[in-house]
Amino acid sequence: MNITIKSLTVEAFRGVPDSQRYHLNGNNILIQGPNGSGKSTALQGIEFLLTGQISALRGSGTGGVKANKHIPNLHSDPSDTVVRAIFEDSEGDFQVYRRFSNRSKIVTERRPPAFDELVALANRGFLQLTREDILELVLTTPSNRKEEIYQLLDTGELDDRRLRLKGVKREAAQRADRELAKAEDAIDRIDSLASNSVSVDNGSTKQSLDTEALLLEINKLRKQLNAVPLSTLPEDGSFATGVEPPVEQASHPLQRKDVRRDIGVFHSWIDDVEEHQMTLDHTRRAISTLQADSDALASLSELSLIQRGRQFVNEGTTTCPLCEAEWESDTLRNRLEAREERLQRIEQRRDELKAQSDELLTIADEPIRALQRLLQISEEVDDVNWKPIRRFVGVLQAITNLVESDIVENIESVDVSKLNTEFEDIVPEETLKQLDAKAEQFPDRSELQRMWDDLTTLSDCYLDWQVARENAQHYEAITDGLKVAKREYIAARDDVLDQIFADVSERFGEFYSLVNPDESSFDPTLGQTNTGVDFTVGFYGEGHHPPNALHSEGHQDLMGVALFLALVDRSSPFDRTPILLDDVFMSVDSTHRQRIAEVIFSQLSDQFQFVITTHDESWADQLRDANAVSEQNVIKIDGWTPTDGPRIKLKD
């Protein structure tokens, strides 16, 4: 499969106020001109045509640059902004265009599969290489390199699947924990009625139920209620089977110990409502603060890069090791220190929010079960207004669901309005007063009635314990199964990625050695770790080191280009792939650039259609002299003006 670019036309686009056409004819192209003459306009035009975006106007470091304002020419009507191109595949030429006024849509007179593949490559970043891209591949942290390479190789879905497995496993573990909490709650209620049946494991606070001891307690009650003893505990928890209920007086749910205990639980919660409100308010403000700082969490990925960069900055440093900009040494050092301090503060805010949200989850979850059990008697106690309790449980459940969704990881999508609650305004105190007053109306039951109530309550608690324990075991089994599935998936994923990285490392070494054949022990290794993708290269038999440890800046740039070409070679379905190189060889010395030009002509032009920009006349001469780019395919730009745009020099 093959596809090449034959021509490009930009209209009212970037620095071109009217129209400018670039003839590529499917060949290698050199765009030569001084800085600020609009060389990159052609490359950005191809990128915009295929993706609808310009990467240089996106991401961190772009400040107040806005695509809506800065993609169209500043002196033109945005409705006139359009990029057109003619492509060639095995069936011939076809035209494509994209308008800024409808930049989500690309229009083609025909759309062969090869074009869709080219669009996919462009959207993954396999089209244009800049000096900034080289930094992301070579001079960066393993985690950032992983993100960059995963995007290029389109392996992000592999990590997405791992995260989905992790999320499902976490959800199953949370369900197991909730069911275990229900089982513990049921044991607590059994302990209040038959304490001999509950024991605490040695060395822990975990409670366990002794079913034989419980059977003895049940039979004591049955004997006093003139019923025959049970030989075993019924699976359905029907401990009162065959027992005649006392009829001395009518029974009411508010006379039950477990109901009164649940009312007491919520009274205790209300006593601390001011502290609970403070926790809620602190969490809401922490979320709002991070949401308002839209770049805060995203900027954390820069922390390790800043810290790494500071290692190369001392009192005499006047050039930034990351962007090569010139600085006064004190200003650069102070700038990096300030940036690092800000990122550390953001990291601290994130950790504080996690601790705060965990505390809020405990507070919101604590009274829910007690109130839900109270609601179960609402039909029997129908002369009490239960609506405030239902509404309050709904508010607590909404807070619990929000906090359980991992608000730190999903901070941008958190609906903080769900935390705009004043507990004192919605606490169902009137309903609780009604319940307290109503309970006081009932006298103490007879001893037989108490035993009957204890027996039936134990039945309910035992059944709740059984169900919760079985559910917990079910979800624990699911969690264990998902742990195995995740482990096996990661192993299979790593096998696939290890082979991909081995292929890329081999091809990278081949490309690099074409320009540096004397480095026989170069032997690059590119491989994944738990935290990212490590990148090391050999150095004249002195072991493996990071690219920036011993190699010069020019060699590092060559590595970036070679690695990019290796990744393209591994991922591209084309026999010959278009590649846009935007001034990426400026740190390379003349001798090595001469070798690059020769390699482009002899080794790489059959595999890639290069579009190269440069302001350096000697580099342009080397490309022409080596036949990497023919004289007919050199586009010279003399300069640029706001009214006329790039001034292309006509060929003789």
From TrEMBL:
The keyword Aminoacyl-tRNA synthetase does not apply. Residues 25-639 form the AAA+ ATPase domain. SUPFAM superfamilies: P-loop containing nucleoside triphosphate hydrolases. InterPro entries: AAA+_ATPase, P-loop_NTPase, RecF/RecN/SMC_N. It comes from the Archaea. Keywords: Coiled coil. The keyword Coiled coil applies. Gene3D superfamilies: P-loop containing nucleotide triphosphate hydrolases. Pfam families: SMC_N. Residues 329-363 form a coiled coil. Belongs to the Sph1/Sph2 family. This is RecF/RecN/SMC N terminal domain-containing protein. It comes from Halorubrum ezzemoulense (Halorubrum chaoviator).
